[in-house]
Specification:
With 419 residues, the chain is mostly beta strands. It has one domain: Beta-galactosidase, Chain A, domain 5. It has three helices and 27 strands. The chain has a nine-stranded antiparallel beta sheet with strand order 9-10-11-12-27-21-20-15-18. A four-stranded antiparallel beta sheet has the order 1-2-3-4, with no helix packed on it. The longest helix has 13 residues. The termini are far apart. The structure holds 2-acetamido-2-deoxy-beta-D-glucopyranose (NAG) (6 copies). One 2-acetamido-2-deoxy-beta-D-glucopyranose binds next to loops. This is Aldose 1-epimerase. It comes from Monosporascus ibericus. One of its GO terms (biological process) is galactose catabolic process via UDP-galactose, Leloir pathway. Pfam families: Aldose_epim (PF01263).
Length: 419
């Protein structure tokens, strides 16, 4: 079939040689390379100091196990206990998934390419005038993370998923074929996403939407991430948004010492939430963060994203776990779980274990933080930002590529200060 032939050809082009063997099959083939999931439907990969699990639904990460500074293994990702739970139609917080074909929000579910206007499916901010929603979030009501990707390759330390997104799906022009490869090694999680617009020009922006709690909810004094420090050394600016988080077009300054300043020094996520400017910072009546910071570093000279320093560092003084995020992407969205309210349970394994009975085994408000490597949000509606080469892709042009490395280490700074 046409699609499978394409997948095979692209697979050969884009993937490590070892995986191309399995790319042609829909049926039985290649039991040698595709290992079965565990009883919860999770596909595991592992290497020195790190284990991670994934599901085909949304190509989502479901578990990430790292040892804390005392040698206790903690699952530092928010999620459900089994693959089935991810397909609950009533609760779909994009847990650990790959939002696509266009992550974050599209204003009025509308964009223009070469003078032609496209309307995509809305799915957020319902109003009487727009009962389905005033905008599109994460690719629409049947975005990529509502679908099963195909497992095309699986080794001990690596897994590759693919998806074929047909022309017209959710209103987007043209077919898109994408591969997502996750690899672990040396306390590091590597992500590579490639996507190709095979038939028409179309917007593409992907990300990884994992929710983190670097204590694995094991901290006996808090269930929140408000004590985690966040540092984004290249992010003196952010994208201005309206009260439903749609970019206005304005690029805002994160003045030194302001609520959104995480560039001048590392700062605890909760440090400024009592300040008046924190109110409404993440939309209507919302106190916290749900913002897109720009990553500006070309002015410092040529850089190699793998070695020129992380775009973001998050550290928990309690577990000692530090996460350094390296990426080739030019923006970084942070969501501080302002909307969580204790209605999600934590997982039944490798989470919790605190001996404080006052802490409920649930995800509280500010109980996690989502860290999204991506491009400037809704740039398809802001041609004045001149992001077209990073957001609009078409046949014959360069593919869309996202690369990131999540490096874990132990940093004992701060240990003991709170007890
Ligand atoms: C799957 O996990 C959810 C909670 O995450 C639980 O309620 C449900 O019973 C589990 N289902 C199976 C089949 O284990
Ligand atoms: C918003 O989208 C609707 C159709 O979905 C369209 O009729 C309207 O013109 C759009 N408004 C703007 C300001 O683009
Ligand atoms: C995804 O795959 C699972 C397991 O085969 C299946 O139960 C589920 O219905 C599929 N979901 C979708 C949206 O296709
Ligand atoms: C948390 O654990 C530490 C170390 O075991 C202990 O000193 C402290 O009293 C505990 N706090 C609570 C609230 O249980
Ligand atoms: C604002 O948020 C608070 C706390 O989240 C809530 O109790 C209140 O009802 C909200 N107010 C409005 C006008 O939505
Ligand atoms: C360790 O964490 C502290 C506080 O978050 C931070 O200031 C320091 O730079 C970190 N150390 C390293 C080596 O990253």
């Amino acid at each position: 079939m046409r699609v499978n032939t394409r997948l095979a050809a692209l697979g050969a082009l884009l993937l490590p040689a070892a995986s191309a063997q399995s790319s042609g099959g829909t049926g039985s083939s290649t039991a040698t390379s595709i290992k079965a999931p565990d009883e919860n439907g999770f596909y595991w990969i592992s290497s020195e100091g790190i284990k991670a699990a994934f599901i085909p639904y949304g190509a989502s990460i479901t578990k990430l196990l790292i040892k804390d500074q005392y040698g206790i293994e903690r699952d530092i990702i928010v999620g459900w206990d089994n693959a089935t739970a991810y397909e609950n139609p009533d609760v779909h917080p994009h847990l650990g998934s790959v939002p696509g074909r266009y992550a974050n929000r599209i204003k009025n579910s509308t964009f223009e390419i070469d003078g032609e206007t496209y309307h995509v499916e809305p799915n957020e901010n319902e109003t009487p005038e727009a009962p389905q929603g005033a905008n599109t979030l994460h690719g629409g009501p049947n975005g990529w993370d509502y679908r099963n990707f195909t497992v095309v390759s699986k080794t001990e330390d690596s897994i590759t998923f693919s998806i074929v997104d047909p022309d017209g799906e959710q209103g987007f022009p043209g077919e898109v074929i994408s591969y997502v490869t996750y690899t672990v090694h040396d306390c590091t999680w590597d992500i590579k996403m490639v996507a190709i617009a095979t038939t028409k020009k179309t917007p593409i922006m992907l990300s990884s939407h994992a929710y983190w709690n670097l204590d694995g909810f094991g901290n006996n004094e808090t269930n929140t991430v408000l004590d985690h420090t966040l540092y984004m050394p290249y992010s003196g600016q952010r994208v201005g948004v309206d009260n439903i988080l749609i970019p206005t077009g304005d690029i805002l300054a994160n003045e030194r010492g302001s609520v959104n300043d995480f560039w001048s020094a590392p700062k605890q996520i909760g440090a400024d939430l009592d300040k008046p400017e924190a109110q409404g910072n993440c939309g209507f009546n919302c106190t916290g963060y749900d913002n897109c910071w720009l990553v500006n570093r070309a002015q410092n000279g040529p850089y190699d994203w793998r070695t020129s320093g992380p775009v973001a560092t998050v550290h928990s003084p309690w577990s000692g776990i530090q996460l350094d995020i390296y990426t080739d992407q030019d923006a970084f969205q942070v969501y501080s779980c302002n909307g969580q309210d204790g209605s999600w349970p934590i997982k039944s394994e490798n989470q919790g274990q605190s001996d404080n009975p006052e802490l409920r085994p649930v995800v509280e408000k500010y109980g996690c933080v989502v860290l999204e490597v991506q491009d400037w949000i809704d740039a398809i509606n802001h041609p004045e930002w001149q992001r077209e080469s990073r957001q609009i892709f078409g046949p014959g042009g360069d593919p869309y590529v996202l690369q990131a490395s999540y490096v874990f280490s132990i940093n004992s700074t701060g240990t003991g200060t709170s007890s």
